[in-house]
Amino acid sequence: MTAEIDGNDFEIVYGVHAVQARLQTTGGRITKLLLAAATSSGRIAKILRQAERQHVTIESVSGQQLDQLTDGVHQGVALLCKHQTVAGEDTLEELLRDGGQQKLLLVLDGVTDPHNLGACLRSSAALGVDAVIVPKDRSVGLTPAAIKAASGAADLVPFIQVTNLARCLTWLKQWGVWVIGLAVEGSQSITDIDLTGSVALVMGSENKGLRRLTRQKCDALAHIPMSGTASADSPDGSLDSLNVSVAAGICLYEVIRQRSLSGVTGTD
């Protein structure tokens, strides 16, 4: 969401972790730090020191004002920032042209829950993902709720929106990226696929899984091996038994595991 303050629209970043991360990684885009008058803690004191070092304007507001500006638990602190320009295909091409290491990309096909996106960004930052790719339509963007759920990771991993996801996957394959879609009915276990080269892991939406055209563009469909009945009964092919962010974390870790065992340098 954006807030109308002094006639201008701003991106609202709220919550202690998200605010700390944004202060550490964002330069001139920060306009103002909003602090609820009754808020006081060691973490808030640290945020105040960061803001003062960067000469960020600090304004005391009521908790009710922050409630109106945010759509989640703000913990008494928020930042007003100039809008971040979301990256597009040009940024992705620059990334692929930069050789020297195997690429690891996470593609989210229609994930609409900002908390799932935030969790995927956290895993991506922790496991060295080079970029997270989403379609512009029918997919959540970097909303304040997603940024807060990411706990600072939204500023650490390039977030790329593409106009046509199927076309993007075709293009990735032309660059030598192995495109692996995750679905319960995938013919291979993710642990049996060689993930030591440049890889794009494609995860479907929370309810419908991978779209038909997205499936067709994948080089292979894989599943996560699970015990008991957890992997059964998914008529639409989605990862019903696992939250999409949990599934993404498992699969990303498998990439890192394989690369570590093989001595491949593919992540930072």
Please give a structural write-up.
The chain has helices at 16-25, 42-53, 63-69, 89-97, 114-126, 144-149, 165-174, 212-217, 244-262, and strands at residues 2-5, 8-14, 30-36, 57-61, 77-81, 104-109, 131-135, 159-162, 178-182, 188-189, 199-204, 220-223. The chain is an alpha/beta fold and 268 residues long. It folds into two domains: 2-81, 2-Layer Sandwich (60s Ribosomal Protein L30, Chain: A); 89-262, Alpha/beta knot (3-Layer(aba) Sandwich). Strands 8-7-6-11-9-12-10 form a seven-stranded parallel β-sheet, sandwiched between helices. Helix 1 runs parallel beside helix 2 (42-53).
CATH class membership of the largest domain: Alpha Beta
Order of SSEs: EEHEHEHEHEHEHEHEEEHEH
Biggest sheet: strand arrangement: 8-7-6-11-9-12-10
Radius of gyration: 20 Å
How would you briefly describe this protein structure?
This protein has 268 residues and is an alpha/beta fold. It is 34% helix and 22% strand.
Secondary structure layout plus pairing:
Elements: E1 2-5, E2 8-14, H1 16-25, E3 30-36, H2 42-53, E4 57-61, H3 63-69, E5 77-81, H4 89-97, E6 104-109, H5 114-126, E7 131-135, H6 144-149, E8 159-162, H7 165-174, E9 178-182, E10 188-189, E11 199-204, H8 212-217, E12 220-223, H9 244-262
Parallel strand pairs: 3-4, 6-7, 6-11, 7-8, 9-11, 9-12, 10-12
Antiparallel strand pairs: 1-2, 2-5, 3-5
Structure characteristics:
60s Ribosomal Protein L30, Chain: A, alpha/beta, 7-stranded parallel sheet, 268 residues, 9 helices, 5-stranded mixed sheet, Alpha/beta knot
